[in-house]
Please model this.
Amino acid sequence: MTWHASHGPVPETQVPASWPAPLVLERDCTRHYGTQVAGGICRIRIFSASGRVPVILCSQIAAQPNWCISAVVEFLAGSTVARYLPHRFDEPEPAIWLEHYPLDPVRQARGAGQLDVSRVTFSDWRPVIGQLAGHRCVRIGEPTWQPLTPLDAATLLGSQLDLLD
Model:
């Protein structure tokens, strides 16, 4: 079965050729960022398909105060693309970066909804060396966040949307 944002589940034999190829999970890993004392852990999942820009889903796992993935996204995105997709820096948009906060009891108590995913765009994808917690690290341009509706997330992730929360 293939999942399409507008049509829901569709048998593979009925998928029109005009639909984009479904995303495939290429890499699933955890990354520590910051320092041992200050920082956090996130899960990075990279999805790709023929003829499509790769989608990178960065999910917050744990963080010290003031060290959520949003606080360091330009470093996480820059170093992730540099490590796993360095050839993509030649493209106008090397990857689609999605930031995801899984629903947990603390966030739910503060009123978080069922789906907390944002698309993060950057003013520039050109990698430069910046400073993070006193260490030199790859970073890219200034981030801008666009919260996604369930339909937006389904359009970008397709059947992989089931992996959230």
User: Anything to note?
Assistant: The CA atoms of residues 61 and 127 lie 25 Å apart.
